[in-house]
Amino acid sequence: MTQLYENPNLASASSASSLVKIELLSEPWWRFFTFSTDHKVIGIQYLVTTFFFYLVGGALATAVRAELATPEADFLGFERYNGAFTVHATIMIFLWIVPALVGGFGNYLVPLMIGARDMAFPKLNAVAFWMIPPTGILLLVSLLTEAPAAGWTSYPPLSLISGKLGEELWILSILLGGTSSILAAVNFFVTILKMRMPGMKLEDMPLFCWAMLATSVLTLIATPVLAGALILLSFDLLAGTAFFNPTGGGDPVVYQHMFWFYSHPAVYIMILPVFGMISEILPVHARKPIFAYKAIAYSSLAICFLGLIVWAHHMFTSGTPDWMRVFFMIATMAIAVPTGIKVFSWLATLWGGKIRFTSAMLFGMGFVSMFVVGGLSGIILASVPLDIHVHDTYFVVAHLHYVLFGGSVFGIYAGLYHWFPKMTGRMLNEFWGRVHFVLTFVGFNICFLPMHKLGLMGMPRRVAQYDPQFADLNWISSVGAFILAISTLPFLFNAIYSWLAGPKAGDNPWEALSLEWTTTSPPPHQNFYGDPILLTGPYDYGTHSKETLDYFASQLKTLRELALMDTEAPHS
Amino acid sequence: MSALSNIILVGIGILLTVTSLWYGQNHHLLPASAANSAPLFDSLFNSTLTIATGIFLIVQGVLIYTAIRYRKRRGDWGDGDPNHGNVLLEIVWTAIPAVIILWLGLSSLDVYQAINGGVGMGGHTHSGMAASEMTMAMEEPDHGAADSGYAYTPVVVPGKEVGKPELVVQVQGMQYAWVFTYPESGLVAGELHLPLNKRVRLEMTALDVNHAFWVPQFRLKQDVIPGRETYLEFVPSQLGEYPIICAELCGPYHGVMAGQLFVETPEAFERWQQEQILATRPDDSTLALAPQSESAFARAQQQRLGIPADIHQALQQGSQFSG
Ligand code: HEM
Ligand SMILES: [Cu+2]
Ligand SMILES: [Cu+2]
User: Fold this and answer.
1) Which residues of A202-225 are buried (b: 16+ CB within 10 A; e: fewer)?
2) A500, exposed or middle or buried, with CB in 10 Å at 0-12, 13-18, 19+?
3) What is the pLDDT of residue B169?
4) Using a CB cutoff of 8 Å and minimum separation of 24, what contacts does B315-323 make?
5) Which tens digits make up the pLDDT trace of B256-286?
6) A489 and A515, same structural domain?
7) Which of A278, A509, B190, B203 lies in disulfide reach of B314, CB 3.0 to 4.6 Å?
8) Contacts of residue B101 in chain A, CB cutoff 8 Å?
9) Same domain, A489 and A532
10) Domain extent listing, chain B
11) Domain check: are A393 and A411 in the same one?
C-alpha cells in the first residue's frame, strides 16, 4: 500500500535513527485490578475473570456427570442435581462464553484491528466489565444458599415455585450480566462504525470485526426482551402478579416466547465472534488468504437477520400453532445456508495452504470439524416432525454441546493460543498445547457423541435418575467428561507459567498480516506508535515476497523509534 | 486432471454414497416404532441422516486430506497459493445446501401433516384466559367437551383429513405422576391403556407446572401446560407396554415421573376397562380432578382426592422419592 511511502516522518528519517534504543516501559501487573479504561486491560480482565468462572462451571459439570455415571440418583441427589445443572449452564453461557468472546476477545482485538487507540466509550467499557464480577458473585451466592433449580431457561410456573431466594438471585444476576452485554454492544457498534483508521473501509476490516458488528446488533435487539421477561418473572415471583402464572390467568408460554426471542439470538452471540476468530486464525497458520471474504462477511449479517426470526424452534412442542411451527422451521433451516457458506469457505482456505500445526491451528481445525456435527444435528432439530421426538432429550444436549463446546470453546482456545503472545508478549508452550488439544478433542467426543443416541432412544434431559437401559452409554459419557476435566490442567499451567516466564514473543511470531501484529507485544497504551499504518491487507498471504515483508517490518520499526523519540524529547 | 485422479474421485464418490446410504438404514439409533405415524418419522429421519452422514464425511474427509496433503513441509516457511475466491464454487456450495434444505423443509411439512392428520397438535388456552381470543382465532373452534363435534380445520394445508378419534382420553400431568380419565366410562386410572389400531385423542393439561408427554416408540411428544389444553392424536400399531416419559423439567423428581402405556387388543382393553370400573365403583371414580391452584405435590394430591387403587400406586411411586 502506498501510505507507508507517503509518511512524511519516514521520508525525513535517516537510517542513523535506528541507533536510538528505547526500552518500553512495561505496565505494572496491578493495573489489571483497577478501573482501567484501556481496552486491552479490560479485555484481559474479562478473559481471566471468565476463565475462572469456566473452571467453576466445569466443576459443576463434572459433578453432574458424576451423578449420571450410574442410573440412580446417588451422588448429588435429586434437589442438588437440578441446582447443579442450572448453575452450570448459566455460568457457561452468561459468565464464560458471552463475556469471554465479546468482552474478552472483542475488547482486546477490535480497536487493534481497526487501528483505533481505544474503544469509543472507554469508561462505559470499564463499567461493563465491572458488572461481571457481581454477576458471578450473585450466582455463586445462590449456589451456596438456595440454588435456582428451574434450568437456565427458568420456565414458569416451575421457576415460580422452586425457591424464591435462589430464583431471584438468578434473575438479578442475569439482569446485571445482560446490562453489561448491552453496554458492551453499544460500544462495539459505535467503535466499529466510527473509529476505523482513516482509509479503512468496512470491506477492509478483518472478518472478526464484521462478526462483532453482527453480534452487537443481535445483542442490542434481543437482550432488552430478556430483561423484560425477567423483570416480569420477578414480579410474579415476589409480588404475586400473574404475567406468566396460570393460576392467576397468566400465560407461561408467553415467557417462553420472550425468553427465546433473546436466547436464540444468544446462541449466535456465542458463535458469531468465534466464526470471526476462526476466519482470522486459519489464514495465518495455513498461509493462505481467507477464501471468499465477502461471502463470509455478509453471511454474518444474514445469520444475524435470520437469527432474529427463528426463536420458536425451541417451542415446537409448546402447543405452538401450526403456521408458526412451519414458519419457524423454514426460517431455521435457511440459516444452514449462510452457515454452510462459512464452513466451506474455511475448508477452501485450508486447501492449497502450507498448514503450520500450531496449537491455535489444531483448535481452529478442531472447531471446524466439531461445529459441523453440531450444525448437522441442528438441521435435524429444525425439522418439526423430527424435533417433536428429540426435543428436550439428550439429543439436544449433544447438539448444543457440539456447537457450544466443540464450537465456541474450541474457538476460544484457538484464540487464546493465537493471541496470547500479543496479549502477554510471551509464547505458550506448543508441546503442552498439543497435549491439551488431544485430551480435549478425545474427551469431548467420548463425552458428547453417545448423547445423540441416548436422546433418540428415549432419555430425556435434566434428569438425575434414568432408566438402567441407558447405563452403559452414560458411563462412557462420564468417562469422557473426566478426561475433559483433566484436559484443562495442561492449559492452565501452561498459561500461568508462560505468562511469567515463557520465551519472548516479539511483535509478530506467527508472521501474520493483520494490524494488531504490526505493533509491539503487548502493545503500548495507545496501541500504536504514531499512526497505525496499513501495509498489507489482512489476508494477503502469498502475495508479497519475504523481502517486501521484511522491508515493511523494518520500516515499521524505524517509525516506531521516531515516534518514541518524539514523545521522549518533545520539540526541542 | 489425469484419468487416474478422475477414477479415484468417482470411486470416493461412490464409496461415500454407499456408506451414507448404508448408515442411514442401519444406524440403530431409534427404539422400535409402535404407532401408525412412527414409520413416517423413521423414514424422514433415515433420509436426513443419510444426507447428514454424507456431508459429515465430506467435511471431515476434506479436513483430513488438507491436513495431510497441505501440511507445512520441513524447512518451507513460504506461503500457500494466494487464491482467495472462486465464484462458481461459491455458487455451488450455496445452491446445494439450499436445495437440500428445500427438500427437507417440504418433506418435513408432508410428514408433519401426515402425522397429525391436519389436526393441530398444538393446543389453546382455556377459554376465559387472557390470550385465548387470539390463539383461538388461529386454531380450530373450541373442542368443548368430549362430544363428537370436533371440527377439523387444518391450519397448514386443508384437505388432509383423517378419521375421527375413536377414543378420547383426558390426561393430567402433575408433579410427579400422570392421571388418565376415560370420559365415556368415567374411569380414572394411573396407567394408560389403549386399544390397538384405534385412533386416540389425548386432551392434556397440567395441574401445577409444565410437563411433557412423550412416548419414544410413538415418536410423539407434546408439552402439557397448566391453564391450557394441548392435544395429541395417534394410532397405536403394536401391542406392548411402553414408557410414558415426562420430557419437560417439572421439579427435582422430573426424572422419575414415568407412566406406563399398554397397547392391547380391543377385547383386552374392554376387559381392563370393565375390571377397573368394578374395582373403583365404591369411590365413584368420576371424581373431578380439578386443576389445583397451588403446586400439587404428589402427596398432597393424594390426600385431597380419594383416588382409586392404581393411581394411588402411581402417586406413591412419585412421592416415595420425595419422602
Ligand atoms: C445450523 C445451525 C443450527 C440449527 C439449525 C440449530 C437448531 C436448533 C434447534 C431447532 C434447537 C431446539 C431444539 C429443541 O429444543 O428441541 C436448538 C437448540 C439449541 N441450540 Fe441450536 N442450531 C444451530 C446452531 C446452533 C449454534 C451455533 C448454537 C450455539 C453456539 C446453538 C445452540 C443451541 C442451544 C444452546 C440449544 C439448546 C437450548 C436449550 O433448550 O437449552 N445452536 N438448535
Ligand atoms: Cu435456537
Ligand atoms: Cu417432568
Assistant:
1) eebbbbbbbbbbbbbbbbebbbeb
2) exposed
3) 95
4) B315/B177, B315/B190, B317/B177, B317/B256, B318/B175, B318/B176, B318/B177, B318/B253, B318/B256, B318/B257, B319/B176, B321/A78, B321/B176, B321/B253, B321/B256, B322/B176, B322/B252, B322/B253, B322/B297, B322/B298, B323/B299
5) 998 999 999 999 999 999 988 887 665 544 4
6) no
7) B190
8) 333-334, 336-337, 379
9) no
10) 3-65+89-115, 117-164, 165-322
11) yes
The arrangement of strands across the sheet holding B228-234 comes to B123-125, B228-234, B200-206, B167-174, B177-182, B187-189
Interval A540-563: pLDDT, tens: 998 888 888 888 888 888 888 888
CATH topology of domain B165-322: Immunoglobulin-like (2.60.40)
Cα separation of B35 and B39, whole Å?
A: 8
| Domain encompassing residue A45 | 35-505
Last residue in a domain, options A505, A525, A546: A505
State the Cα–Cα distance between residues A427 and A224, nearest whole angstrom. Answer: 40
End-to-end CA distance of chain A: 33
Residue A370 has which C-alpha cell? Answer: 466439531
Question: For the segment A246-276, what is each residue's pLDDT rounded down to a tens digit?
Answer: 988 899 999 999 999 999 999 999 999 999 9
- Which residue, judged by its Cα, is nearest atom 19 of ligand 1? A400
CB B310 within 8 A of CB B277: no
| Cα–Cα distance, A451 to A474 (Å, whole number) | 8
Number of domains observed in the structure of chain A: 2
CA triple B218-B222-B226, angle to 5 deg: 145
A138 and A1 assigned to the same domain: no
Band (B291; pLDDT cuts 50, 70, 90): very low
What are the C-alpha distances in Å from A115 to residues A191, A415, B132? 11, 20, 55
Pairing of strands B258-264, B192-195: parallel
**CATH number of the domain enclosing A44:** 1.20.210.10
d(CA A506, CA A518): 10
> What pTM value is reported for the model?
0.88
Nearest to A112, CA basis, from A551, A532, A545: A532
**Considering every ligand atom, which ligand is closest to the CA of A343?**
1
List the Cα angle A144/A148/A153 in 5-degree steps: 145
8 A C-beta contact, residue A558 and residue A10 = yes
Q: In 3D, which of B208, B174, B178, B175 has the Cα closest to residue B191?
A: B178
Backbone angles phi, psi at B236, to 5 degrees: -65, 135
Residues A364 and A438 reside in one and the same domain: yes
Asked whether the beta carbons of B72 and A281 are under 8 A apart, the reply is no
Nearest to A308 by CA among A272, A359, A353, A273: A272
| A184 and A39 belong to one structural domain | yes
Position B277 scores a pLDDT of 85
pLDDT at residue A27 tops 50: yes
Chain B, 254 to 313: residues with Cβ < 8 Å from chain A are 254-256, 293-295
Q: Please give all residues whose beta carbon lies within 6 A of any atom in ligand 1, as ranges.
A: A 153, 267, 270-271, 313-314, 332, 335-336, 339, 375, 378-379, 381-382, 387, 391, 396, 399-400, 403-404, 407-408
Cβ under 8 Å to A: B residues 29-48: 29-31, 40-41, 44-45, 48
Query: Which of A314, A364, A310, A367 has the alpha carbon at shortest distance from A337?
Result: A310
**Are A227 and A296 found together in one domain?**
yes
Rg (CA), chain A: 24
A378 with A238, same domain? yes
Smallest CA–CA distance, residue A110 to chain B, in Å, is: 23
Q: What cell does A395 get?
A: 439429543
Q: Is A422 exposed, middle or buried (0-12, 13-18, 19+ CB in 10 A)?
A: buried
CB contact under 8 A, B249 and A368: no
Q: How far apart are CA A468 and CA A462, in angstroms?
A: 16
CA proximity to A279, closest of A371, A193, A400: A371
